[in-house]
Amino acid sequence: MPRISIIMPSLNVAPYIRVCMDSVIRQTFQDIEIICIDAGSTDGTLEILHHYMEQDSRVRVLHSERKSYGYQVNIGVAQALGDYIGIVDTDDEAARDMYETLYKTAVESGADYVKGTAEGFFTLSNGERYRFPISSFEFGKYEKIKELSPENTPSLLGEDNFLWYGLYKKELFKQVKLQETEGAAFQDIGALFQTQIHAKKAVYTKKTVYYYRQDNMNASSYNIRSFQYVANEYSYSEKFVNDLPFKWRAFFYRKLFFHVMDRMYAMAVSGNFCEDIWYDIRDVSKRLKQANERGLLAGKDVSDEQWAELEMLWKDPRLLYDKYYSQIMTEKKSLVDVIQHVGNSSMILFGSGKLGKFIHAQFLYRDYKNIVAYCDNNCSMYGKQQYGIRILSPEQAVIEFPDIKYVIANKYYAEEMRKQLVSLGVKDSDIMVYTNSCDIRLFGVSLNEVD
Model pTM? Predict the structure, then answer.
């Protein structure tokens, strides 16, 4: 009997399924079974899965009669033979030692579940990835590992937001039932609540075990109806917390609040206020209002700005949408200004840190190849490369690339950096400054002014 059953629901993920399957089959921990549940793919996914099943006896392919992520996972759990359950979304990737790491920790600790951390990523036009961390905790206060009792830690509802970077005892997951709504519609929300409510012991480790793809534009997070899916899933999940102590219910509504705001922002990124989900927006707004009236959600629980946003939602959801739309358009304009500043010319990014890397990734994601080098005042970076281009000193950049445009990527020392370039002979008109945020949601924004 296998130690671990890895459940992999799929529907039309042919561009990603091979990389995903390879990441699971090549695990350093081999005592696994791989249960693939396909919901009627028509793009070649199913044929690819059958090929893997023919090549590896640990792979089983099941056919789901319903196109429902929740239904598919429930089938997988019912069929699982392992002592532990893992779930991998079939457009993502598992780190090669993911299940060795989690299984060893689970056995040693006796935990009901063990979780690592993850990296989200966007694939760029040069084949490299822009990565960003996904973690349940600020691990600084926990060092590398945190052991706790979920049933006594309601704050987990707001800190731990994903199923897929975990390994769960089967006896725990047998108590979990995902809602079987159509499609991939955030059905993991309810499953998370159930695991956290039922688990007596959990371990969180700082180890990165999972890679979460963000460039699949068919994913549920990019669906214009995602607000409706979230509203429906929280309605389903409410029954799991209704009889729990006050703190659990308070954290539940706080999480609902943050999730609603995130989906409103995603709608603003799309540039389309979806009238079809007006009822769902009003229904969620009403539930948050009732939570406030019952003392389960108060201004002290969030920032002043967030509370003002909630009041906008209560008054008129379009006000909140307009605010978020204005914010994303401001961010978008800053990026468009950089691209227009460069035009068809080459450029150097002054600053190879987080902000410079973000701008470069935005360029590459849209297949702009104007950036020929970085320059930086950090001498330890000289001679290194980032996204395939060199990092130079400002002096060397000016020598190697005369008459080139510069974009300064720094929030705090931009004026000093501008003066430095001018002193080296760069024309002030060839210098632009970018000081905005590294908001990953800009990857989903069409820069139609320059497309």
Answer: 0.93
